[in-house]
């Protein structure tokens, strides 16, 4: 009999509250190439570098100026694309996508890029993010005769473009101006590539160059992988158009208050990526250092929860002089398995991914650095792992403010009532996770650590809505139904 925690085809495929590993799910990642004869291979390596942003499905669409060649599949990049498949993807322009589904179903029909036929030829769209007002627009389009093929929010934009009487660039401007949310779009026709960022810059997207070719990626680490030079971030409200005439820098709306997702700095992006000119590893080290200044505790060792908290743990250790040790080891090969674990393993499911190093933590007072607490269940398991391995004290330090509010812009988060920080005080959470002490990084400390100090913007150019309930866009609905990524 299938266990209720095993909600998909794979044991650790479950989403949201059905996932025993209580962490925020990576969003999605996009990668685009314009003007390179081997666009598909570059996209393969780029998507592989963005794999951490989505492991459920991936896809790639390549254009040769006349027609599309594309492939999408469920699974990892290395599973979906083999040598024969890659050989069929011929063209000098490409967009690709890795996906973790949240508000859209986890099925092949929703894998991106989404491909459409319309009056002017072929259209492919890939996005990272969420369109808050997609349900209203979708209902309006269905009432006027549109037939949707997927449950993805992204298809709304395709319908808006296809129904317009204007050329694809002007139609895309109109479509983007209608939608509300956080997003980074790659839109491709047979002879054009369009790149757009939402008016607040909530979702990251960067531009690079490889020779005479232009490269676009959700994170700069993918540019580094293929040897491309990072040029700059795509600006809020900006629309780039690439065609036979070269690169045209345009915009579809005026930029609004800059509000890049703070969780990109805290958790999502790879430590070798840069955001707004700031390296993620360095930023996370500063978070740890600031955490030490705000909430020092006398201890014997500092350890970080792999992988996203290692940099912050190093920063905490350097600031305090307490030795940094590998007290927790991550099993990187749990992968996706059809084998359902026993009840005993299910109850201690975190041991499938993490192990405490007894020889390091036994008899020691441990400072455990983590990036966030969502429901508190995984944090409790990790604290207990350390205690079972012989730690005499476990002091938890979280390098973000308390996560109290759901995200509507592309992160898979539980309902507010399931977020432990929404319902309990710090002291109550401390008892809930079985820690000797608990402290969270202040919003001011976070802003300072990522280099967001700006007297004219108290939020430092970040979206902090998950911490302070200050959402940068209007939310025209009640309840929690649109938390997550609509791609």
Written overview of the protein:
- With 487 residues, the protein is an alpha+beta fold.
- It folds into two domains: 11-256, 4-Layer Sandwich (Glutamine Phosphoribosylpyrophosphate, subunit 1, domain 1); 278-468, Rossmann fold (3-Layer(aba) Sandwich), CATH 3.40.50.
- 27% of the residues lie in helices and 24% in strands.
- The chain contains 17 helices and 23 strands.
- The protein has helices spanning 39-49, 77-80, 83-87, 134-143, 154-163, 168-178, 220-225, 262-268, 280-294, 310-320, 343-347, 358-361, 377-388, 420-423, 426-432, 443-449, 465-468, and strands spanning 28-34, 57-63, 68-74, 93-99, 114-118, 121-131, 181-188, 193-197, 206-210, 213-217, 229-233, 238-243, 246-251, 260-261, 274-275, 278-279, 301-304, 328-330, 354-356, 365-370, 393-398, 437-440, 462-463.
- A seven-stranded antiparallel beta sheet has the order 3-2-4-1-10-9-11. Strands 5-6-7-8-12-13 form a six-stranded antiparallel beta sheet, with helices on one face. Strands 17-20-21-22 form a four-stranded parallel beta sheet, sandwiched between helices.
- A hairpin with a 4-residue loop joins strand 7 and strand 8.
- The two termini are 32 Å apart.
- Residues 1-20 have low confidence and may be disordered.
């Amino acid at each position: 009999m299938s266990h209720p925690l095993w909600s998909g085809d794979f044991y650790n495929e479950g989403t949201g509250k059905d996932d025993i590993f209580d962490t925020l799910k990576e969003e999605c990642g996009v990668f685009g190439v314009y003007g390179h004869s081997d666009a598909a291979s570059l996209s393969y390596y780029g998507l592989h570098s963005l794999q951490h942003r989505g492991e459920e499905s991936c896809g790639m669409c390549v254009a040769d100026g006349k027609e599309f060649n594309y492939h999408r599949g469920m699974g990892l990049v290395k599973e979906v694309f083999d040598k024969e498949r890659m050989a069929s993807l011929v063209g000098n322009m490409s967009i690709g996508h890795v996906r973790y589904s949240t508000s859209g179903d986890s099925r092949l029909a929703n894998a991106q890029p989404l491909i459409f036929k319309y009056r002017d030829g072929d259209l492919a769209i890939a996005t990272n993010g969420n369109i808050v007002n997609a349900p209203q627009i979708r209902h309006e389009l269905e009432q006027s005769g549109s037939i949707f093929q997927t449950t993805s929010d992204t298809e709304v934009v395709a319908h808006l473009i296809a129904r317009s009487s204007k050329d694809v660039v002007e139609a895309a401007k109109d479509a983007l101006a209608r939608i509300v949310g956080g997003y980074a779009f790659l839109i491709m026709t047979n002879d054009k590539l369009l790149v757009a960022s939402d008016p607040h810059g909530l979702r990251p997207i960067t531009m690079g160059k490889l020779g005479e070719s232009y490269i676009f990626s959700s994170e700069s680490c993918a540019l580094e992988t293929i040897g491309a030079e990072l040029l700059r971030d795509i600006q809020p409200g900006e629309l780039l158009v690439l065609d036979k005439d070269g690169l045209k820098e345009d915009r579809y709306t005026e930029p609004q208050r800059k509000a890049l997702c703070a969780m990109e700095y805290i958790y999502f992006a790879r430590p070798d990526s840069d955001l707004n000119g700031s390296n993620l590893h360095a930023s996370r080290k500063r978070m740890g250092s600031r955490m030490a200044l705000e909430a020092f505790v006398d201890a014997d060792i500092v350890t970080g929860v792999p992988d996203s908290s290692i940099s912050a743990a190093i920063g905490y250790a350097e600031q305090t002089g307490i030795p940094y040790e590998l007290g927790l080891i991550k099993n990187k090969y749990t992968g996706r398995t059809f084998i359902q674990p026993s009840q005993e393993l299910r109850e201690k499911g975190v041991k499938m991914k993490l192990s405490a190093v007894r020889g390091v933590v036994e008899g020691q007072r441990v400072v455990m650095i983590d990036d966030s607490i969502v429901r508190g269940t995984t944090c409790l398991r990790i604290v207990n792992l350390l205690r079972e391995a012989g730690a005499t004290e476990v002091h938890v330090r979280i390098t973000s403010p308390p996560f109290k509010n759901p995200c509507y812009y592309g992160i898979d988060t539980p309902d507010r009532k399931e977020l432990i920080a929404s319902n309990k005080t710090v002291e109550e959470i401390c008892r809930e996770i079985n820690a000797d002490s608990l402290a969270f990084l202040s919003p001011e400390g976070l802003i300072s650590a990522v280099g967001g100090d700006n007297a004219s913007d108290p939020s430092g150019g970040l979206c902090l809505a998950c911490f302070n309930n200050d959402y940068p866009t209007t939310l025209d609905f009640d309840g929690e139904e649109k938390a997550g990524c609509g791609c």
